[in-house]
From TrEMBL:
Designated name of the protein: CN hydrolase domain-containing protein
Organism for this UniProt entry: Aliiruegeria haliotis
Residue ranges of every copy of the CN hydrolase domain listed in the record: 1-259
Annotated Pfam families: CN_hydrolase
Protein family (similarity comment): Belongs to the carbon-nitrogen hydrolase superfamily. NIT1/NIT2 family.
Length: 277
């Protein structure tokens, strides 16, 4: 199986972002990818609440979603849209940060709302309050494909290993971790977290990322870490896409999942542990 990771540098203008994303999806398909993955917030990196209120749409009216579904059908590929920022109709006005698995007919096969919100002060100057704008999801999701099961997660979820344990035990062969990681935490934690989840799950980890300085029309400027990554079930880094926008394709030997789990069957060795709660 051949997978393609899109590394994007989106702005807070969905209309401007879409043509770039579509041409990179076409490029991945032309390089033979049968599963193409895009990063977190493929449609719009958040700058201010008022800007989001203006440009974000409900799922059934979102043009990025409909155009990417068409693209999956046109190219005959599976597409993991890392996430879209979408209106929800919730009373408190918060948005959803939602991944979609699209099949080669363009149909939606799975949806996942990011569970863990990035409410973190990463440095004296840099604080994130994701839960101010986004409503967290509640449910883990596995999507079925002909080449294996995908466990859907997003960005900050990577720091919560029990979610990945659950997905691995549900049979996930590939864990998807689309991201818009902060440069500071990215440099310190991104690669070891991805490799740890791959090793302890005996699964591929595919992590398409946002990169660079993002153009925003208002609010504070944003920058993200890049370094989209593919990690094999044994823990080896297959791809590190660096820090500029790009399309990176790679072959995945899906039998590596069973091989890794046979060599170290730790998924079968969980025990319930007594002691402090
Ligand atoms: O806000 C948007 O538009 C897109 N979403 C993000 O950028 C999200 C929430 S602020 N970022 C992360 O989860 C970074 C996690 C991270 O950097 C870490 O775990 O260290």
């Amino acid at each position: 199986m051949r997978a393609g990771l899109l590394q994007l540098n989106v702005s807070d203008d969905p209309e401007a972002n879409l043509p770039v994303t579509l041409s990179m999806v076409a490029e991945a398909a032309s390089e033979g990818a049968t599963l193409v993955l895009t990063p977190e917030v493929t449609n719009c990196l958040s700058s201010s609440r008022s800007r989001q209120q203006e440009v974000l749409r409900y799922e059934d009216q979102d043009e990025t979603l409909s155009a990417l579904r068409d693209a999956a059908a046109r190219h005959g590929i599976w597409l993991l849209i890392g996430s879209l920022a979408l209106k929800t109709g919730d009373a408190d006005g918060r948005f959803a940060n939602r991944s979609f698995l699209i099949d080669p007919a363009g149909d939606i096969r799975a949806r996942y709302d990011k569970i863990h919100m990035f409410d973190v002060q990463v440095s004296a100057e840099e604080t994130y309050r994701e839960s101010d704008g986004f409503r967290p999801g509640e449910e883990a999701v596995v999507g079925d494909t002909p080449f294996g099961k995908l466990g859907l997660t997003i960005c900050y979820d990577i720091r919560f290993p029990h979610l990945y344990r659950r997905l691995a035990r549900a049979g996930a062969d590939i864990l998807t971790v689309p991201a818009a990681f902060s440069p500071v935490t990215g440099a310190a934690h991104w690669e070891p977290l991805l490799r740890a989840r791959a090793i302890e799950s005996g699964a591929f980890v595919l992590a398409p990322a946002q990169c660079g300085s993002h153009a925003t029309s208002r609010g504070r400027p944003r920058a993200t870490y890049g370094h989209s990554m593919a990690v094999a079930p044994w823990g080896d880094v297959l791809v590190d896409a660096g820090d500029a926008p790009c399309v990176t394709c790679m072959d995945l030997n899906m039998t590596d999942v069973a091989t890794a789990r046979r060599r170290v069957p730790s998924l079968l060795h969980d025990r319930s542990i007594a002691g402090p709660p």
